[in-house]
Amino acid sequence: MESAEAGTSWSIEDYALIGDTRTAALVAPDGALDWMCIPHFDGEPLFGRLVGGPGAGTFVVGPVGTAPIVTRQYRPDTTTVETTWQTESGRLTLTEGMVATVTGQLLPPTLLVRRLIAHDGPVEAIVTFDPRLGEQRAQPRAERRHGALVCSWPRVAVALHSSPELHLEPGRRSPITVFPGCPITLAMMVAHREPLIHVGPERAWDALQADEQHWKAWCRDLVDLPYRDTVVRSLLTLELLTFSPSGAPVAAPTTSLPEEIGGIRNWDYRYAWPRDASIGIGAFLGAGKPREARRFIAWLLHASRLERPRLPVLLTLYGRHPRPEREWTEWPGYRASRPVRAGNEAAVQHQLDVYGWVLDAAWLLTDAGRRLYGDTWRAMRSFANEVARRWREPDAGIWEVRGAGHQHVHSKLMAWLALDRALRIAATRRTPAQDVRAWTDAREQLENEVRARGFDETRHTYTRAYGSSDVDAALLVLPQLGIEPPGSPRVRGTIDAIRDQLGAGGPLLYRYPPGRDGLPGLEGAFLPCSFWLAQALATTGRLDEAHEVFGALVARSSRLGLYAEEMDPATGAHLGNFPQGLTHAAAIQAALAVRDATAAERSPGATAL
Amino acid sequence: MDWSGWALFGLVATSALTVVMIAAQLGGLTRLDLPLMLGALVTPDPDKARVAGFVIHLGVGQAFALGYAATFALLGRATWWLGALLGLLHVAVALTVLVPLLPGVHPRMASTRAGPTSTALLEPPGLLGLNYGPETPAVTIAAHLVYGIALGVLLTAG
Asked: Chain B contacts of A246, Cβ < 8 Å?
């Protein structure tokens, strides 16, 4: 482990997520807050050491030197992280979080609270507060005001209050002593194009406590869930990754954490994908959180308004197009994984499968008895019409492979799903007859074509693309669609072929044969696919296997129950942006499938299939 | 002051402004939906909100037209370019003051400070309404120019 002043050497999965649903921070086990953007998830990094090297800023609060960790966990059913170290003179506990609920109170929109408590005896600790702003890693102008250290740049001011008052300087390592019974509380507040709101550490601590009560109350009705700890942590992670001002689901709070250490597969995930919103709708609905599900559909409708009937692949938090992808050439990247990118080129792709996810989410709401507003249904009809018009075109597919499009079988199946769900919703409300005819015809043609051209009769599996010999782990959604009965030989053959050809050891799967994406280098196993495998197994009645896969995945979560996008099959190290909303949504859906299959098994006369 | 002109032409100008905004929305230039935003003050159903919002919008438009008519009366003349100038002033206040302040009073509009307890579903418009699309300021300026010019021309005739 390197010192706090150097670039990070912590593994991705060592980091804890804290957040306020407007932005988020990642904290290393030594108390180094190494990633945080302001004022929002997609803003400029204030602490960027995670991918920006030692000059990109960090905020360390922890023991002097290396101290073994006794415990590190989220407080149950909250988003507050608690780390306890064993030092030579006693135990030291750091409790930290960000205040999410600030409306109706004179509180700053970004308020980070960190409290050190010593047990057993006085403990030597350090505080290093080194904020650097943006790609330029600009150093602040620092001064003391209102008993606080105030760091300012032209558009941004950051204040750090402490109780008892500490004389800190930006970038300087400040030793302190923490005495038992005398906690040291630090409160950091951010102002972006507005005046600073100074909040004393004690009031900030009280606000964090109030937030904890909110999260506990939110979790109270999450009962009768298999793998409850995993599901609750995943739901809370999705909540933290939902941008409250617009309802946008952020794919991950980071940019450029690599899919291969030292490689170039480093993407900016601080955006919202309609696909993720749709999967989130299913996850929240299934867990009994309809308000959160409705929030996602509202975001989807609003964000897609400008381009309707085309569904954009990804959008900014306020539904705009991301800026063109750029490389931050001066940033060294996580463990020399360059380039560090800002922006995402996938925004311009055509991905047919997105329509299937979105219309399926609308159907789930309808099926759950939630009436779609007329406005919502008009939008969904326009999406279905777009699918009926364009399903024959090649697309970039769910994996956003850059370059020329292909006839992806998964995309065709999801297009079928879009039309099927549109027809199901149409059966519940007044719909123009020509729409119904067009969708019915297109669904039939799609079904015939994908069965004829997308299935390999010799190997008994659906394939990655028409005429391809590869399989695609995205096809694990097949049992959920309804185009084939879940127990059919085609479904079973596809699941088994994927496990056989894409298996990466244990429950892990590659999303497609490694290296077959036109990019140099390789990548890890894709974690959402493993959860889709558990879901597929549960849905097809292979409950024991589903438990086996899910249990193995739980064992591979981070110490705090978080998942990245990918995992190195050899080492179990997490890879890619972290934590990843899609992985957590897939985990929830897999657990819900296990719950439903178990209930079906136990119900006399019911079947799981 | 031309009271009968105000009563009739205020409605005409507001309708023209609304037509420009809706056309821009349907053309994919902006997500700004004034009837929805105003109507969501009284109902969460978007379809009902648009009806209620249109009525509210006509009322608001009529109130603003009173200001235009009073200004014309004060200056002793009403011309298309004077209407356009007032339209520019109007839209400047709307985009930089009224629209950004809406989250503070709108029960169903989130603010940039919204947290997980927020039940608001409309996202905040932001400065100049830019959160509703990059063309929003241009569309809104055009709509208010139409509104001001219409009043300038029609109140001249009246």
From this structure: 110, 123-124, 131
Q: What H or E segment, with its residue span, contains residue A18?
A: strand A16-19
Question: Minimal Cα distance from A101: which residue of B?
Answer: B115
Nearest CA in chain A to B114: A245
Q: Is A561 on the interface with B (CB under 8 A)?
A: no
Q: Nearest CA of chain A to the CA of B126: how many Å?
A: 10
Nearest by CB to B118, from A39, A103, A318: name it.
A103
How many beta carbons lie within 10 A of that of residue A399, not counting itself?
A: 19
Dist. CA A450–CA A149, nearest whole Å:
63
Instruction: Spell out the residues 6+ positions from residue A582 whose beta carbon is closer than 8 angstroms to its own.
Output: A251, A273, A275, A276, A279, A528, A565
Locate tokens 């998830």: which residue? A41
ipTM (interface pTM): 0.80
Nearest to B109 by CA among B120, B95, B125: B120
In the block, which residue shows the tokens 């009403």? Answer: B78
Whether the Cβ atoms of residue A103 and residue A131 lie closer than 8 Å to each other: no
pLDDT in tens, chain B (158 residues): 677 778 889 999 999 999 999 999 888 899 999 999 999 999 988 889 999 999 999 999 999 999 999 999 899 899 999 999 999 999 999 999 988 899 999 999 999 899 998 888 888 998 899 999 889 999 999 999 999 999 999 986 54
Inspect the interface and report whether the beta carbons of B47 and A246 lie closer than 8 Å.
Answer: no
Domains of chain A: 12-195 (2.70.98.50), 222-271+314-340+503-609 (no CATH)
A21 → closest Cβ in B30, B116, B121: B116
3-state DSSP helix/strand/coil % of chain A, to nearest 5:
35, 20, 45
